[in-house]
Amino acid sequence: MNYNFSVLLSIYYKENSQFFDAALNSIYTQTYLPNEVIIVHDGKLTSELYSVIEKWEALLPIQNVILDNNCGLGIALNIGLEQCSNDIVMRADTDDINLPNRFEIQYKYMTQNPEITLCGSHVNEFEASSDEIIRVKKVPIGDNIVKVIKKRNPFNHMAVCFRKKHIINVGGYMDLPYMEDYYLWLRLLNKNYNLVNLDTILVSARVGEAMINRRKGFKYVKSEITMLKYILNSDLEKKYTSIPYFSLRILSRILPTYLLSKIYSKLRN
């Protein structure tokens, strides 16, 4: 049976076709299936990626949203969100594995708690195989979300479910490289929407050196500065405690990969 919720993904040409295939399979094997899967093509894809999409179009209610040029994750997700016909939307990444009951748990929670705007969860992290978990990336629960958000992202983006109308109300995803999600959560909290994390694991997320490398560079520094400015101009309590944390985060973006890997491991524990 297909339920009234959407799954939103964005794909671009550098994605691994085998990882993408596994991600779509993890959607197909859910205990609750969506009635639409929105896949945003963020620019032209490889023939291997097109083949994966063609394969799964026969099995899943896929709707392709095709962008002529690569626009970046924030813009791509915002365009895809506009095409979602349901208010309840599951975010999913194209290289991660959704555990079989993820959609059922989050759909039931959102329908039973209409006052909640967004719910996330802990995630497993793996490198070569999703059967070999190297750690669990835990997220804050309850009131700890507001405390943590001034220091770091309190949600695992690939594991969130949210209400489209509330996301649209705060302007949706914005073009802030590498921090599109974090920026969105801050704007939601600043408008007093209710955001929660479920104390369970719903996704297995792929990690590795490529992910660490993406967390470096001048674009990341600019995004960190934008985030800090927003926090300091927000209505969050004790917002100035963010300054030392973001100063360290900005410094880490220009460090060598092996040092950044160690810092990232410490920060997420």
TrEMBL record:
Q: Annotated Gene Ontology MF terms?
A: glycosyltransferase activity
**Superkingdom per UniProt:** Bacteria
Q: Which UniProt keywords apply?
A: Glycosyltransferase, Transferase
Q: Give residue ranges for domain Glycosyltransferase 2-like.
A: 12-130
Xref: SUPFAM superfamilies:
Nucleotide-diphospho-sugar transferases
EC number in record: 2.4.-.-
List the Pfam families: Glycos_transf_2 (PF00535)
PANTHER family this protein is in?
Answer: GLYCOSYLTRANSFERASE, GLYCOSYLTRANSFERASE EPSE-RELATED
The record's similarity note reads: Belongs to the glycosyltransferase 2 family.
Q: What is this protein called?
A: Glycosyltransferase
